[in-house]
Every structure is written in C-alpha cells, then in structure tokens.
C-alpha cells in the first residue's frame, strides 16, 4: 500500500500560507524522495503531478525539470496530466521550444490530447502572437472531434484582439452561432476587452445585447473594461454614462437595459 504522507508533505501547505510557503513545503517533500523506499513511503504519479504543478505555476522551471527527472528515475511514469502541466508551465514561461518538444514527444508515444491539452497550447501560442500555429491547433482540435470550450474561445478572442484582427473575432462569433458552446461572463468580458482594444466601440456595445440574449448579466469587470476603452478612445461622455449606470442598484440597471450611447 502506498502511504499518503508523501503526498501530504508535498502538496498541502499550512493554513493561510503564502505561495512561497507552499513552495517550501514542496521542497521539503522532494527531499524525502531519496529516502522514500527506506520508509516504505512510495510517491506516485499523483505526487509527481502535484509537485510539478507547484513549481511550474510559480515559474520555477529548472526546479520543475529536476523534480521530473527525479520522479522518472524513481520509476514513476508520466500521464496525460503530467504533460498538460509541463505544457502549461513552459507556455506561461514563454519557453516555446520546450513546449514544442513536449508536444512532439506526446505525438511520438501516442498520448491522446484532451480538451485541456488543446486549451493550454492554443492559449500559449495565442499569447505569443503565433496566430498561424494557434489556428492550426484549433482546426486540429475540431478534426479530432474535440468540442471547443468557452476557455478555447476566450484564448482565440484574446489573441485576435491583441493582434488587431477584428475580422477574426467575427469568425469566432460565427462559429459560436453554429455551435452549442455554453458562454460565460469570462468570455463576454474577453470579447468586450478585445473590441475595446481595437477601438470597435459599436461592436463592444453590441456585446451587451449579446449578453442579454444569452441571459448573462454584465458584471463590474464588464463595465470597467468598457469605461477604460471609452476613456482611451476619448469618448468621455460614454464613459461617464457607464459610470453612472454602475452606481445604480442592479434592479434599476436591468430595467434600464443597455446604455444608449450615441
């Protein structure tokens, strides 16, 4: 039987601990790997994934890689979650060559990609501004009959907004019309932000109508994003109207409907 103590030592920080404290706990846990066999406490792939995620999410890539090597030398084999963690960590650290190497390894050894895998790599290449690779992966995802999620669409919209591709955002919206993807407030806020960046104020305003049709209420982030865009665009009257709308109770705001900016 595999003991639970190694997992707990590595992954569970003290109450109210900071991120740095959590990493120290992980470091202490890694030090126990060398003595694991003596204490009959065997780490497993769950232990490995939790440890890699802790270091990877904090940007400590070299430590993450050393841990991965230690776990492998202990005979622990990676699974799809392991590779998703590596991909996400490399992507956020902008280490795209290493990310591509992981992708090639997965293909070589026939690890089937999941929705999480696709979301991670699509977002990473989108953030890097590599729209060609991002779009290729999106097409590949659909050809594999893996249904894009709201997370996928957020990544596309965010990337197109940063790249100044308003027409591409329109393509995402057309895709949505012919799909049953459940949209949430995060997606609409991404859409508002993208149109605001591009100075497409009519389209940005239209997002509020889209939200109404989908039964999704704007939140403070929605309005603040729009206000920021209007101010940058020199549309101070529109920004003031929205600020006034934000001060109203939710019930009154809903009765008034969307702002009538002219």
Salient structural properties:
single chain; 262 residues; mainly alpha; elongated
Account of the 3D structure:
This is Pentatricopeptide repeat-containing protein, chloroplastic. Keywords: Repeat. Pfam families: PPR, PPR_2, PPR_3. PPR repeats lie at residues 44-78, 79-113, 114-148, 184-218. Belongs to the PPR family. P subfamily. This protein is an all-alpha fold and 262 residues long. It folds into 3 domains: 1-77, no CATH class; 92-182; 183-262. It is 70% helix and 0% strand. It has 15 helices and no strands. It has helices at 5-11, 19-31, 45-57, 61-73, 80-92, 96-108, 115-127, 131-143, 150-163, 166-177, 185-198, 201-214, 220-232, 236-247, 250-256. Helix 9 (150-163) packs antiparallel against helix 10 (166-177). The longest helix has 14 residues, at 150-163. The protein is elongated and about 65 Å long. The N and C termini lie far apart (69 Å).
